[in-house]
Structure formats: structure tokens, C-alpha cells
Amino acid sequence: MDDLLWIFISTLLVNNFVLAYFLGLCPFLGVSGQLLTSFRLGLATTFVLIITALCAWVLNTYVLIHAPYLRLISFIVVIASTVQFIEMSIKKLSPSLFKSLGIFLPLITTNCAILGLAIFATNRGYGLVEGLVFALGAGAGFTLAMVLMAGIREETEIMDVPVLIRGTAFNLIIAGILSMAFMGFAGLFSST
Amino acid sequence: MNTANITSSTHPSAQNQEPGSSRLVISMAVAGFISGVIIIAIYMLTFDTIKENKARELREAVFRVLPDVSHMQKLHFVDNKMVVVKSDGMDDEMIFAGYDKDAKFIGYAIQGKAPGFQDTVHILYGYLSSNSNITGMAVLESRETPGLGDKIFKDMDFVSEFINLPMHKDIKAVKKGTKTQENEIDAITGATISSKIVVKIINQAFKKWSPRLPQQGSEPALELSEVKVVKES
Amino acid sequence: MATDVSAYEEMIKGLWRDNPVFVQVLGMCPMLAVTNSAINAVVMGLATFFVLVTSSFLVSSFKQWIPKQVRISLYVIIIATFVTVVDYSLLAMLPAIHKELGAFIPLIVANCMILGRQEAFASKHGVKYAVMDAVGMSAGFMIALFSLGAVREILGVGALFGVDLFSANFEPWVIMILPPGGFLTLGLLLLFFNWFTERRRQFLIKVADVDKIAVGVKDNG
Fold this sequence. Notes:
The structure holds three protein chains of three kinds. Chain A has nine helices and no strands. By secondary structure, chain A is mainly alpha-helical. Chain A has one domain (2-182). In chain B, 37% of the residues are buried. By secondary structure, chain C is an all-alpha fold. Helices cover 71% and strands 2% of the residues of chain C. Chain C contains eight helices and two strands. In chain C, strands 1-2 form a two-stranded antiparallel ribbon. In chain C, helix 1 runs parallel beside helix 7 (127-157) and helix 4 packs across helix 6. Classes of the chains: A mainly alpha, B alpha+beta, C mainly alpha. Chains in contact: A-B, A-C, B-C. At the A-C interface, helix 2, helix 4, helix 7 and helix 9 of A face helix 2, helix 4 and helix 8 of C.
């Protein structure tokens, strides 16, 4: 139980996917203009991450143990098709949910956080439950980073920032400061 | 292949203008087949080299942590006793036994791993059961932060603290310069967490393996056919 | 002759004008994650180079046979195959480097720059142009990776390619090789790039103005 809690906290804060591993930077820099959109994208990503953890576990346990060299290609193909399948089901079953979350799904599949999660979970030899907690922590961490970034960006919209700095350079510097703040969480690492 | 099915099923009625679903499936199948062939080819081509690299790395680590060893063999814990294994494989239930050039038993090289700051840290340490001393420590695998956490194998002051370290009780990592007890280790400044992980792994592995090791004097003899490699002079 | 000039043009544009990192802001993930030392950056650049050039070559050669509906999946399969090839080759030939880059080699697949070049360029152009474009783009990517890796290693460790540059008195800025340093360095490099481009643009405007005045004087005269 302690281990699971630690996996969650560690991926949420200490080893945040965006701010410490640089995974999922495209949406982090590109789509973080508005608070609400960022939050929704974060939720949708968390959902896809959990599906990914499930897929990765199934593949690792039943297929890749016999054919480790197919790891990369099978992760990509299986995850992409599962997400596409879910996207179509949501569209059929709940159009309103599709409108608020579903439109992000195809975008998310090409997000490197998804593949990164599958690979990290495999490298660390996580089981099913650990993998799911890892995915939940990663998703929550991604959402947290997105929301923080969007909040700061909305504030800076009304500030007098030189034209030259506006844009990606400015966002990267904000991200650097956020990342520095998150490094402080390393102190959470228990001292045993 | 799944992708092909899904994509094609979304265009069931468009068979006249657009390529039929069978064509989509076939092109995906051909691509999948070719990529499979390429991947298997590269896997087979590199398989021996990769295996050899890994074995050599492990061998070198064993010789580094156990001084004066010239032969080694792998031991496996099965049915409550340590038996010599011949296979190439390596898993968590295996340790190494080191022997001098007259095939006399010297000590064990024991591995242990635990989740580190970023990824699993995998270390190997030498252990003399005659006087319960650790004779050395080597990091087999770690992805600790470059410049900080990776000092656990780059900082020679830290590594050398594990040479002739008495293991009568659990060892402990303390802030650099505050070491007073025999069982304390000076942690690396700026890499306290990673230093503590190394110490934790050794304590855990020690607890796991000490009851399993055979009584002193009854260590498995070196089966000469099993000699892996004589230390390169 | 004319085709040669434009093929050259396709190659050169990736280096500066359409630099995938500084201008298009693509491929950020591997860009920041592995650039804590110059050598890692160079190896990552070479791996990306290999994957991009071979994928572009294949995609542009077989573009007639690739059905539109499944093209993205096919591109991804092609890219993933070559990434696996790179992964195993590195593991066999440079195990020490592979250890450091480890989990980030497979992530080349998710580098949007590679998929982007297939969709935007290789699938629409001939083999020669596609390869030229791929060479240019990956060279531009490599330049960006290297400048980031070099800056971070010099400031963060006080060394370049593992060779110490300063005396022992130099206190390394450890933050530079940690994640925040990646964000900050890339942000500042982008800023420098913007500033340079802006200056050049203003210089060109000034030159154009001078020309206009000169022409105007002539007209009046």
C-alpha cells in the first residue's frame, strides 16, 4: 500500500511527466492557453493513460514475454487502435461527452507521454495495479501542470510583455520556473 | 492490423471511388509483415553481441567488487539450498561465488535492486562470509539524474566507502562529514537520496541472502567445467 | 541544373529558415530530455537523422501504393521499425550510451517532427527531394540538439564532451543539467533566435527603404 501511494505521489509531484521527464510537451506548450480547455485535455489524457497502462500490461504479460523485439511496434499499434475504438464508442454512446473530451482523443494518441508511460512501466517491471496507479499519477501530474501553466498564461495575457519574448520562448521560461518549483518536492522522498 | 480494420470499417460504402477495405487490409498486412521481418532480422543480428556485452559487464563487476578472485560461478537458490547453475540467464534469485586461482572459495557477489529516484537502481556488492565484510560495490544499472544521482558510481570517494565495510548490523547513510559509527556511510552532497537508496538496497539484499548462504566451509566447490572466465591479466 | 538548385534549397531550409526546433517548435520531448550532455545530444541527433532519412526515403518511394485512409498508421509502422533497428544497433554497438539515453530512444517514434515530415513533404515529393528535405531537417534538429546539449554541459558540468574546460575553481550550475535548466536554456536560445531573425528583418526593411528612396530620387530626377 505504501509503495502504491509512493508511486502515485512520485509521478504526480517529484517526477512529474511534463516538468521532470519532458513528456507531453506539445499540448503543454501548444494547448495551454485556456484554463478550461487545459483541464479537459488533462482529464482526457488521464483516461488514455489508464487505457495505455492496461494495454501495456496485457501485451507485456501475454505477448512480449515471447517476442521482446516487437515491444515498440505493438505498443504503438495497439494503443492507437484501442484509443480510436474508444473514441468511436464515445461518439456513439454519449455525444455530449464526446464534445467535451472526445475531440482530444486522436490528438492524445500521438502524445509522447502515452508511449513514455508504457515504456517506463515496462522498464520498472510494474504489475497491473502498480501500472494503473502509475498511469493515474502521471495523468494527474499532467493535468496539474497543464492547469498551472494555463492559469499563469491567462494572467500574462494582460501583462506588458515585450513582443519579442511573447510565444514559445516565454512559455518555456515559465515552464522552467515551474519545473524548478516542482524540484522542491524531491524533499518528499522519505529518508529511510 | 487492428488499425486497418477500424479504419476500413469507417468507410464501408466508399468502395467505388476509394480503395476497398480489402486493399487497405492488404497494404497494412504487407507493411506489418515487412516491418516484422526487418525487426526480427536486426534482433537476431545483434542478439549475440548484446548478450556478450551484458555478460562481460556483469563479469567485470564481479571481479571489481571481489578482490583477488580469478574464477567465478553462478549460484541459484532452489529448494532451500544454493546450487551451481550452468545456464546463461540471470535473475533475482542468483548470486555469484568467487574463487582464487587455486579454486579456493573467497566470497560472494550479491545483487540487489530497488526503485531509485528515477528508475530502478541495480547494484552488485562483494561479501565475505568469513568476517561479514562488504568488499566493494558496483552499480550495474541506474538512471539517476546525471551530475547528481549518478555520483553513486562516479564519485570514487563514495564507492570506496564500501570497501571493507563491516556488516554486523544495518548500514546507514548520514550527511557527509558526520560519520561516527563503523556502520555509517558518508552520503554524497546533493545526492543524499541516491546514496540512501544504495544503502537501502544493500541492507535489503543482506537480509534476504544471509540466511540462505551455506554454512562457512560448506560453500559449493568450484566445478572447473563451470569456470566462466579467468580474469584478464 | 535548375532541379539541383532547388534540391539544395530543400536541404538548406531545414538548417535555419525552417529549423524544426527553433522555428517550428517540434520534437521538444527528446530535445529537452537527452540534452544534458553534448555526447547524448549528438547520438540522439544521429539516431533521429537515420530514422528520418530512411523513413522519408521509403515513404516517398512507395507513395503511390499507400492508401490515403491508412497512411498515418503506415508511416508510424515504418518509423517504429527503423527506431527499433536503431535501438538494437545502439544496444549492441554503444551499450554505455544506450544506458544513458535508455528510455528515450523508443520515444523517437513520438517525435512529431518525423511524422510531420512524412505527412507534409515526403508523401508529396519525389525520392530525391524527400531525402534532401529529410537530411536538412534532421541536420537542423541536430544543430539545435547540439547547441542545447553543449550549453547545458558547459554550464552544468564545466565540461564539453566530458573534457573539463575550466579550472577546479569553477562551481558548476547543477541546475542546468536538471530539468529546469532544459526549459530555461531552450527558452533563452529561442529568444536569441527570435532576436536575431527580427534584427535581420529590420535590416532588410532598412535596405529596401534605402533602395526605394534611391529609386524615388531617380524617378523624380
